[in-house]
Model the fold of this input.
Amino acid sequence: MLYLHGQTLAAHSCDVTVGINTDSYAGGSATDLVTALAALVAWLEGAGRPWFGAATWSAAWVRDSATGGAAIELTCSATFEVTNISVANPLGLYAAGAPALTMTGTAAQGTWWPKSDVAIHDHHQEFGEGEACGNGAVRPGVPGTALYRPRVTAIGTAVDAGRISYLTTVASSPRQVKIYHHVAAAWRTYALGDIERREATTTLYAFSLKVLGAA
Amino acid sequence: MSGRILGYGYSEGPAAQVGSALAATAALQAVNAVAAIEQAYPGTTVYARTAATALFTAQLTEWGTSLTLPSPAGGVSGSYTLSYNASTRRVTFSCTVTFRPVMPANVAAWLGFTQDLSAGWAASWTGEAVPGACVELVAVTVEPLEDWSQVDLAEYEHGRPVSTVWGNHQVHRVQLIATGEAATALRLGFLQAGKVRIYQDIDDATPYGPAYPGGYIEGFVIAASEPRDDGDLAELWSVRMLIGVPR
Done:
């Protein structure tokens, strides 16, 4: 899954009901969806909630194939309901209309989850190319501050291709991206350069994202 | 399910009005005006122009409406209609009274009225050629939008990468496949410059969107290849185009 920094995430709010207990969440405006989701989960698990001790929470991202985006999947140990979702809804929260153990939202702002998901290869620091001469060779940069130069690839549908093109039109400049690195279970932050796209099969496209990560 | 490409007829007005003065005030009247002479008023030529740049089909409707309006100078008594028939691929210019169409500048090629229009009177005239502004397609491929931008992925001191991006439009890569007759209209060039609309399915009136890649697209032609013949007898022709879409 990929999150492309773009327009500021607007302040958002909702009511959450677990059993007979209801509490109101107010999320401020933010520049980072990952942080915004973490804030919501922290609030749900907070000691100040009326369901504290009676319910435990988890959150995950899932692919929204209709849009090529990523949707939030909230899971609780007790049935719960999300209501009164504000018009500004960058997290893509969804009011199901009835209590359930899981809520799957709609595509969250700035997210891309193509058919194959986004793969990171070789996430490690690496110097750029250096110079060589008759009495030695030098590499550019300072040891310890060399950039991460991974390869980032994905396979997607026409909808996925449309989604990433749309996201780049509303992305902020300088362009920065967060990509979830499944092997390491961590978010990686990169500067996002060119996005190359080519036909992979009759219905799928192959994407190659040029990125550089700060040390 | 087949495609269609339509052109936009440039116009900067004046807003839908009828009068012979239009002929003299034309600023850039390549394809923005038609005219008619009614048999009852053989000395008067009445012009109509769209108020603004309009899609081919909308332009036909607006021309008909404008010509039907009473002229300040007199000379119009009929009710005019311009229509395009997708089956015959021809434009018909008709009126409730007998008249003779007049095609200023190169509107004749735009509409397919390549026959001699200098004599005779009739209530209905049909172009003898495929209009240069509208071509039915055997097939069309529209690639999803691509962001057309300049990206500078730079490395700064102390391990800082910065990706700066400039851009104000996106592009579609398109391939059109048409029959030989339609390719003749494509080669006129009206659909290889300016603003066009391309239907991937002529029955689908929904515009293209990131989550709806099968809709029609609309944009400006940045580049177009020479039409290339496919098949043993050149029965099919293909053209590749780059369509720019402003953000």
User: Anything to note?
Assistant: Chain A has a mean pLDDT of 93. Chain A touches chain B through 36 residues (CB under 8 Å). DSSP finds two helices and 14 strands in chain A. The longest strand of chain A covers residues 69-83.
